[in-house]
Each structure stands twice: as structure tokens, then as C-alpha cells.
């Protein structure tokens, strides 16, 4: 049998349903892998093998009685530690919430438990999904499985590291300015920020209310679509949740890209910000590959990247400071230095600047969505730079702003980061595929076509 | 002071006015840097194209029954 560490959700589901794989044996294999390797990667903030085995035994009994719940039944997953799981602390990787035990499951947790998933634990994040990677917190930061001396992106850093390392086939992250897609790019996996309101935020510690999204990280496009199928849906208890009929995100996976109209926003990574040459070459090669697969590719223009980033940061810091103001008054010393400084940026933003940012946002979103009148998807950069070294704090800080992910938090559009090659030194490169609101299925179709035509997603890091 | 570039003493007073009285000198240095960065960002907001009729993203509509 294939090494269990690299089974995809879809592959595992097939084996589990056919009783060719035991959920307990599968969980035990991944538990052993985490125990052997996570001391060097710090992907898990709270590893819960006892809960995993409990879930796995239940799944085994149910599947034996032919009560198969679906593709996650008996499959391990893990949650970024800003997502509530009843009875466990949700710490946000912060001393401030060290003892914050969740009284109820987050909406997304409820769905994954109902689907029969095997819960492996809570994953490292940047403090409050904003301050990291930091070495002055109660838990160490996650590291990149491709080279542990390098940054694995964030803020869903543990979700990226755990999925890429073969600790779990799927993890849940959150994304306010790019925090699912950044670790997906840096760790060579697939991570989506779905359309705003598609996945409930209930039970997830907020960073910025109008920009926060919940999304899955996986090692294949198909698994990402499967996970979104499970977690999408209306939640009347989340005021941002949309109530609409949903299709199946796996429905168009095999449609190919022939005749599909792809708009490339090249000015983001060539003119507005100059990306690292290896990253630019990787993106351009991916676009060329999509053209050879039959897509109609052309360059398109949108607002300059800096304008999008200014809107994102003005709104993000204002909303985040509003959420943190009381702690900032009472317990400023309990934040790590990075989170404290990034959160403080919202303290004295003028009300008019915040309102104006939301006015610009509305115009930007309208203009961006109008582009889709004659294109089907957008392709552009995710990160401008290769994963930098963890000990190079300046490079880490610079990487926070050198990205093209935040524009799609501003517009609320669905955006998926997928692997697009490797640097000469063996670190992952990535691109973003962006769609019109609620059209995740088309994004997945493009991603799957590219994935099947390349080898990038089939490579795995070797853990020493 | 320049509106976009407060001094350390000014930032200490501004912090006190909103109840942030427990900040150490190091924290105040952080607040100063963060505030300067945030205010400098204002120049990148594309407000020149806005007209008074351009409304914020969060203007809402009430559905019947709410």
C-alpha cells in the first residue's frame, strides 16, 4: 500500500469505504509520523492523539456497519488554533488566551465532526493570525517542511506545515490578508480563500470582521474541493454568511481548460512590485502551460497592487484594533512583539480614513468583478519572494507586504494558491487562481488541469 | 507636530487618552512606528476618485422581517 502519510483524502476515502484500510491503523500511522517529526517542525500547538484514536475507532465501527458518512469519514484533519473545538483551549498562539477553553465547536468544526473526520489537534498560527513567526510566545513557530530553516508562511503556518509534511491530508486555516494562501504557496500545497460568506466564521477568533475567511489546505485540488463541499453553507449565526444554493465544488474538476478565458494580472508582480526572478519565471511558465492546455490567455489590468494593499491594511488594522483594544489596555505585555506592533497600527487610524477605505473597497470590488464579463478566471502571483530564512527577521517582515493575496480579501473573491514549481534550492513556488464570486468550481477546474499536467503536486518533502 | 508623524511624547499622550496607560517605553516606540506606518498608508488610498455619493462597503439593506 502507498505510504499512508501521502494518501490524499480522496484516496483514503476509497480505501476506507472498501475496508481495505482501517481508520485506526491510518490514524496510528500519522500519529507516529507526527511524534517522530513534529519536534523539528512545530506544526502542532496541541497534538491530541487520544482524540484521534477515539474518532478513528468510532469511524471503524460505523464503516463496519455500513454507515459511511462521506469522504472525510475516518480521515485525519487538524484545525488552526483560532478555531474552536469543544473542551480544548483556543489559544490563538497567544499567552493572552492560553486558558481559553472552547465551550462549543466552531461551525466548521461541527461540520467536520459530523462528516466523521479524525481530529488530530490544534495547529500553530501567527499570534492572533497576525503576529509571526515569533520566538517570544508560549509555543515556537512552525517551520517549513521543505527546509526547516525557512519560513513556512502564515498565519495558518501550522496548517501549511502539517499538510505538506504528511501529518494530515487536510487542515483548516483562516485568511484575512492571505493567511491560507501564503502557507500554501510557501509549503507547496493547495489553499483556498473561498468567497466571503461562503464558510461560516462562527467560533473562529476574529482578526478583521469584514475580511476574515475560513478555508482548507490540502495536497491536491480534488481534496480541496472535497473539503470545501463539506464546510461551505449558510449559518444564520454568522452575520456575514450567505444563504444561497450551493453546487458541488468537485463537479467541474475534470472539465479541462480548453477554451477557458484566463486573464493574467502581470502588473502586480512585474510593475507594481517586482517579484523575485525565480517566482516570475514560475508564474509565467504556469501561464504558458495553461495556454498549451487550450486556455485563451491574455493580460488584463486592474488597480495597482499598492492601492489594494492600502485598503486591506487600513481596514484590517482598524477592525483588529477594535477587537483588541481592551487587551491592549490591560495586558499589552502579554502580546508577542510582532503582534503587538501590527495590532497597534490600528490605534490611531482616523475614522474618515477607515470609512474612505471601505468606500474605495466598494468601488474596487465592483470594478474587479466587472472584469469577469469577458474572462473566466484570473491568474496572478501569490508571494513575490521565495520562502526566506526563519532567522532573517528583516526578510520575514518584508515578506508580509510583498504579496498579491490581500486584493482578493478586499474584493471578497475566491482565490486558490497552487504549487507552480520549485526554486533551484528546492523550495516551493506558487501561483494564485482567482474567480468570480461563488465560482470556486471553475477555479478548481483550472487548478486540476494544471496539477494533472505537471509534477509539482506529486513531490513531497523529505523529513530528516 | 506633523499629523502623520507624531513624536514619542505625543504618542504617549495619545495612548493615555484612550486608556493605554500600561505601555512601557519599548511598547510606545512600537506604537510610534506602527502609527507612522499606518498614517503614511493614507497616501496610497485612492480617495481622489471618490465622489460624495460613493458609499461604504458596509451600507446595508434590511430584509423584511428583520
Commentary on this structure:
The complex is a heterodimer of chains A (464) and B (66). With 464 residues, chain A is of the alpha/beta class. Helices cover 39% and strands 13% of the residues of chain A. Chain A has 15 helices and eleven strands. Chain A has an eleven-stranded mixed β-sheet with strand order 1-3-2-4-6-5-10-11-9-7-8, with helices on both faces. In chain A, β10 and β11 form a beta hairpin. Chain A is globular, with a radius of gyration of 20 Å. Chain B has a domain of 39 residues. The longest helix of chain B is centred in the middle third of the chain and has 17 residues. The mean pLDDT of chain B is 90. The chains are: A alpha/beta (464), B mainly alpha (66). Chains A and B meet through α10, α11 and α12 of A and α2 of B.
List the helices and strands and how they pair.
The complex is a heterodimer of chains A (464) and B (66).
Chain A: H1 9-17, H2 23-41, E1 44-47, H3 49-64, E2 76-80, H4 107-114, E3 118-123, H5 157-164, E4 170-175, H6 181-187, E5 190-193, E6 213-218, H7 221-231, E7 261-264, H8 267-272, H9 277-292, E8 296-299, H10 305-330, H11 337-344, H12 351-370, E9 377-381, H13 393-401, H14 406-411, E10 415-422, E11 428-434, H15 440-453
Parallel strand pairs in A: 2-3, 2-4, 7-8, 7-9
Antiparallel strand pairs in A: 1-3, 4-6, 5-6, 5-10, 9-11, 10-11
Helix pairs in contact in A: 2-3, 5-6, 7-15, 10-11, 10-12
Chain B: H1 8-17, H2 25-41
Helix pairs in contact in B: 1-2
Summarize the structure.
The complex is a heterodimer of chains A (464) and B (66). Chain A is an alpha/beta fold and 464 residues long.
Amino acid at each position: 500500500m502507498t505510504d499512508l502519510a501521502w494518501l490524499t483524502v480522496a484516496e483514503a476515502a476509497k480505501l476506507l469505504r472498501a475496508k481495505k484500510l482501517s481508520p485506526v491503523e491510518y490514524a496510528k500511522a500519522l500519529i507516529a509520523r507526527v511524534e517522530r517529526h513534529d519536534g523539528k517542525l512545530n506544526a502542532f500547538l496541541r497534538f491530541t492523539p487520544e482524540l484521534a484514536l477515539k474518532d478513528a475507532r468510532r469511524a471503524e465501527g460505523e464503516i463496519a456497519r455500513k454507515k459511511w458518512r462521506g469522504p472525510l469519514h475516518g480521515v485525519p484533519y487538524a484545525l488552526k488554533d483560532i478555531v474552536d473545538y469543544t473542551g480544548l483551549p483556543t489559544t490563538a498562539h497567544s499567552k493572552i488566551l492560553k486558558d481559553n477553553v472552547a465551550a462549543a465547536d466552531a461551525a466548521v468544526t461541527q461540520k467536520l465532526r459530523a462528516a466523521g473526520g479524525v481530529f488530530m489537534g490544534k495547529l500553530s498560527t501567527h499570534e492572533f493570525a497576525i503576529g509571526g513567526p515569533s520566538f517570544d510566545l508560549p509555543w515556537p513557530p512552525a517551520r517549513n517542511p521543505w527546509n526547516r530553516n525557512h519560513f513556512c508562511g502564515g498565519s495558518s503556518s501550522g496548517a501549511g506545515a502539517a499538510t505538506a509534511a504528511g501529518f494530515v491530508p487536510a487542515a483548516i486555516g483562516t485568511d484575512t490578508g492571505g493567511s491560507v494562501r501564503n502557507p500554501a504557496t510557501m509549503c507547496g500545497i493547495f489553499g483556498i480563500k473561498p468567497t466571503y460568506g461562503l464558510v461560516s466564521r462562527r467560533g473562529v477568533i476574529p482578526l478583521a470582521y469584514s475580511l476574515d475567511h475560513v478555508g482548507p489546505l490540502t495536497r491536491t485540488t480534488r481534496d480541496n474541493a472535497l473539503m470545501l463541499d463539506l464546510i461551505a453553507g449558510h449559518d444564520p449565526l454568522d452575520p456575514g454568511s450567505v444563504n444561497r444554493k450551493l453546487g458541488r465544488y468537485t463537479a467541474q474538476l475534470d472539465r479541462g481548460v480548453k477554451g477557458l478565458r484566463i486573464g493574467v494580472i502581470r502588473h502586480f508582480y512585474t510593475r507594481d512590485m517586482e517579484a523575485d526572478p525565480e517566482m516570475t519565471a514560475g508564474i509565467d511558465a504556469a501561464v504558458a502551460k495553461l495556454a498549451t492546455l487550450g486556455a485563451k490567455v491574455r493580460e488584463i489590468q486592474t488597480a495597482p497592487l499598492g492601492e489594494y494593499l492600502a485598503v486591506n491594511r487600513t481596514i484590517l488594522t482598524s477592525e483588529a484594533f477594535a477587537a483588541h483594544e481592551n487587551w491592549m489596555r490591560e495586558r499589552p505585555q502579554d502580546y508577542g512583539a510582532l503582534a503587538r506592533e501590527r495590532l497597534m497600527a490600528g490605534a490611531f487610524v482616523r475614522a474618515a480614513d477607515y470609512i474612505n477605505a471601505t468606500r474605495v473597497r466598494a468601488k474596487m470590488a465592483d470594478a474587479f468583478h466587472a472584469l469577469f464579463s469577458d474572462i473566466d478566471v484570473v491568474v496572478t502571483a501569490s508571494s513575490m519572494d521565495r520562502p526566506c530564512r526563519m532567522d532573517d527577521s528583516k526578510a520575514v517582515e518584508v515578506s508580509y507586504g510583498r504579496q498579491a493575496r490581500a486584493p482578493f480579501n478586499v474584493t471578497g473573491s475566491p482565490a486558490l494558491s497552487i504549487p507552480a514549481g520549485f526554486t533551484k534550492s528546492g523550495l516551493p513556488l506558487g501561483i494564485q487562481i482567482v474567480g468570480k464570486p461563488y465560482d470556486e468550481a471553475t477555479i478548481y477546474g483550472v487548478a486540476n488541469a494544471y496539477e494533472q499536467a505537471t509534477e509539482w503536486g506529486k513531490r513531497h518533502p523529505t523529513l530528516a | 507636530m506633523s499629523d502623520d508623524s507624531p513624536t514619542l511624547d505625543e504618542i504617549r499622550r495619545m495612548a493615555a487618552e484612550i486608556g493605554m496607560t500600561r505601555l512601557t517605553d519599548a511598547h510606545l516606540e512600537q506604537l510610534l512606528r506602527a502609527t507612522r506606518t499606518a498614517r503614511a498608508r493614507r497616501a496610497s488610498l485612492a480617495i481622489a476618485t471618490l465622489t460624495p455619493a460613493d458609499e461604504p462597503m458596509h451600507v446595508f439593506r434590511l430584509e423584511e422581517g428583520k
